[in-house]
Amino acid sequence: MKNKEQIREGLKGSPKVKQVLDWLIMNQRDARPRWYVRLLAPLYQHRGRGSKIYRNVRMDTPPYRQFRLGDHSVVESFCCINNAVGDVMIGDYTRIGLHNTVIGPVTIGSHVNLAQGITVTALNHNFENPELRIDQQGISTKAVTIGDDCWIGANAVILPGVTIGEHCVIAAGAVVTKDVPAHSLVAGVPAKVIRSLTGNC
Which ranges in the chain belong to alpha helices (H)? Predict the structure, then answer.
């Protein structure tokens, strides 16, 4: 990990070399690793014991960032996992359900269940400069963390910079824009704490 960070830092001082490497690794039109990089993915991804990634998952995981799937965890069909701008780390006994999109940097704990159609993204497109097209203004990232033992309901959206504490339930369709305390049920747009799950209510 330290060596990768040193390489990335070194490339910042060599923009032409970085541009060539980006071109060799990433298909710029498709915004995903080139086919020969994807063929090598099992060699540089960490897939834990008993884990499974379904064949029709789109794994946009270039080798210059980490992808880690814990023991006995599953990424179900038609998901998109993207670590091009930040590591994606998934714990043990976690299920990433059908049609989920996860864009790093994202850390998902153990014993987490993501239902269907969920977006977890740490990426935003910059748009502050009205003189430039949005696609000329680059991107920014704020890491997302989902603690252990959480259940995220169908079609929820977890936005950049959010931390969800352990043992939380995010209701279906919720849009989470702020941190969620541990042992909370949240719902709504934007999501708000509905009640505590500590057993004291």
Answer: 2-12, 15-25, 35-39, 41-44
